[in-house]
Amino acid sequence: MGISLVRLRELYERPHIRRLTRYSMVSVISTIVSQGTLFITFGLLRVWSAVPSNVFANAVATVPSYYLNRSWAWGKTGKSHLWREVVPFWGLSFAGMAFSMWTVWIASKWSLQHHYTHMAEALFVNGANFFAFGVLWMVKFLLINKMFHVVPVGGDSGEQLAGVSGMVPEVVRSDGVLSGYSQDTFDDAYGGVAGNMGDPG
Question: What is the pLDDT of residue 134?
Fold first, then answer.
């Protein structure tokens, strides 16, 4: 048991495994938000029909998904880059939303054709939304990973300097979490080596 826990801990310490684990947890949160919003707006309150309710639910879930993925799963700090981060993330979300709209439309139409009750239709609609989310889950991870990608430059101290999506450099700690770049942070990470890089010998 102890060996298994140690092994799991070692796996979790790997940056890609940690990112995937945290991305999965963020996905659970965004799924709860999306499913809850959809069931309330369409199933209980009947604010809109199935497809508009689905669009609204996915849009609401995208907000916490972006911030949690960026700051927690990928550990990025500082101001978001509009064209390299915000716009691509929302574009990806709307592409997924289009697929989700199609599955929800099919579920709603099928339910109406079979004369199911509204509550049964609502359950089918939620199921279609969840199905679409599951299909796109790994694809979104790969694309988001490229969007927030950190390219290691190297280093012997276990700390690495990286350029992130064209933004200012940030320090990547050995635990895979980024901290905002500053000279003090860089000196702390490299033990003052940065200040001597230009010195001869």
Answer: 86
